[in-house]
Amino acid sequence: MKNIVISGYYGQLNTGDEAILRVLIDRLREYERQENEDLNVVVLSSRPQLTSKIYSVDSVNRKKIWEVVKTIKRCDIFISGGGSLFQNETSNRSLYYYLFQIFLAKLFGKKVFIFSQGIGPIKKWYNILIFKHIIKLADYITVRDYDSFDLLHRLKLKNKIDLSADPAFLLNPCCEKRVEKLLQTYNIDLSKKTIGIVVRKWKKEKDMTDKIAQIADILIENEGYNVVFIPFQGKWDIIKINEIISKMKNKPYILSESFQPHELLGIFRCFDLIVGMRLHSLIFASKMNKRFVGISYDPKIDSFLKMYGLKPAGYVDSFDVNNVLLNIQYMLNESKIQKKIEQITINMIQRAEKSFEILKEALSTTRKRKNINILGVRIDCINFNKAKKKCIDFLSSSSPKVVFTPNVEMIMLSQRDEKFKKILNSSDLNVPDGIGVVWASKYFGEKLYERVTGFDLMMSLMPELEKKRARVFLLGAKPGIAEKAKENLLKQFKNLEICGIYHGYFSEEENNTVVEIINSSKADVLFVAMGMKKQEEWIYKNKKKLKCKLIMGVGGSLDVLSGEVKRAPKMFQRLGLEWFYRLITQPWRFKRMLALPKFVFVVLKNRIFGGR
Asked: What sequence ranges are listed for the domain Polysaccharide pyruvyl transferase (predicted)?
């Protein structure tokens, strides 16, 4: 199962943003059906319960930062989806918040997709600098208009940037019968020309309320048109609409604020023209091949109109009533404009599909890998149960199979010792021994969710080895330790066949004798406990001479089994803090423990600056 997190301005009941989310979720479900693959979609929303109910997905409150952090940490792909998230026209907080999410996702090693965004305006040089350095971390970038495309290219990003279109162009409207049912209560005479007006409150407006009221009155009284006010963001738009109507002489129609995006899109079939202050009112009009006039409050309106060869009829803080009326009459009467809208809209739909083609490609390439490379050391992407099963399967092999348990200390040592790195990579199975390796895995292509310690893996094999009557040899530790370990093992596994033991303090001259003792015992499994590096070097050197089926390096496991060394309490084990327990109980290991902070530094340096 792949975990996908979608971030955007969701949960605010903004029809445009909800249309984007609807298309995203529908397309992801279509991918699931086509590819027969499970996707777990989580949406960051300001109203998570409502979002979950409407779209049948998991949802997390985007205002609860700790929940957002945990959600992003668990995902495979992070989608910063739709809208105009990267701008500070409204506030710096919004810009910083969405950039923080991207930085966080990349810090956790996730794939990041900037999905059909409108970028800008971004004011102040330092905001542009912050934006540039974070946006370049994204794996995929698609933008919905030429101005956003040009802005990113002016920043000289090395990322591949694709020009797409707003995902709302791919929203499917509800059927005509459903539209008829929805409009029954309004008794709109659709035999007359019907003009839809979409407004919004804007802090810089000057006499906008009076001017829109005047325009609506002229359309009703002088032209004999229907005027229908359409709320695109619930009660916020209704408040503004009521202000306008209070200034009017004639009575217009007002649609309900409770329509879903696909229902509202279907209703747009009934309009001859839309006067819109919201971007998605213009997108809905063009999608349904209806004529439209835009009043701009934001450069994104200008960018959209430019793609249709149009200009705003005015701006919220300065527009002329007569100019807007002239634009309305021109759009209604110009015969060629309809065909032009249809042709450009076909192109916009095709471009909108491009983002989903890229998303599909991203999903198909986000597959679970067999292994990852952490600072040059191969770590197999395997959990505890699968590691155990693989070790049991090795017992059926005709040649010796080697299992190593790389931890942070071993990986850091391999940075200074290329021969040791080669030895670690020569094994048949490398399990992630230690929470540090699991933590680092998310930066190197595959998140591992479980550590597999050498001691625990060895002990989990004992019942299976006992059942299969496999012969076990214990090699390593100080003289006398292996004997005690054998004694304790047989107390726990009475039928386990331990065919031989030998200490780890033998000389180079004795090596061939030790190998002969192991082979003579006809051991199937050899556990080598000579400590880090020494045991791996010994196994690598003698593998071809040995006749065992499974050889595993187990570090200080025989010391623990013998009772000479006490293992960390279960609580420390569960939290992945065995290293901390060893530090406080064996402070003389302090220098060895320095490998952990060094490892963290090297991993983050490689992640941020590359070079791994």
From this structure: 14-299
